[in-house]
Amino acid sequence: MPGRPRDPDLERRLLAAAWSLLQSRGYDALTLTKVAAEADAHRTDVYRRWSSKAQLVVDVLAEHLPPVSDRDTGTLLGDLRAVVHDLAVSWSSSWVDGLMGLTADLHHDPDAELAFRAMAEGRGEPLRNAIVRATERGEIRTPPDLSLIGDLVEGPMMHRRMLGRQPLTPDYLNALAELAHGVLTGTAVVL
Fold it and tell me: What structural domains does the chain harbor?
């Protein structure tokens, strides 16, 4: 006797419910049981797809984070400003407050950590492409360690939001893009 047919919209509803809960209540308050209730589904529906909250949230972030655009503005500084702006949209979201809990849980969930790293790598691609274009245009003489540049650009935003609890203002983001530009081009002014 065959079972009940699978609901084709169930995974979409579960991800949408998890995103809604993540935004409204934060990571710490999110549970797989609450996601099931919010999606009008059974707990087993969630547990069949995700064995941990961290795995679910990584999939939710991969699905719902605003994209980082990969537009060529014609200059390294313009590209950096575009990337910094797009990253700041995510870092300015209310769900970021729970990111510390997620990173702690990733430490104990290798599958979720691997998925999180893959998502982060994909989100870093536009910055890597901007560096390659700037190198080809001659704006950068020596190609830098691309992972270090990602840390240079996104690390201050993460620190300011998560530890400093300060907003990412347009002036701050512009200063960050200009500082990264100065480091990459060798024209940085020591403050």
Answer: 10-57 (1.10.10.60), 65-185 (1.10.357.10)
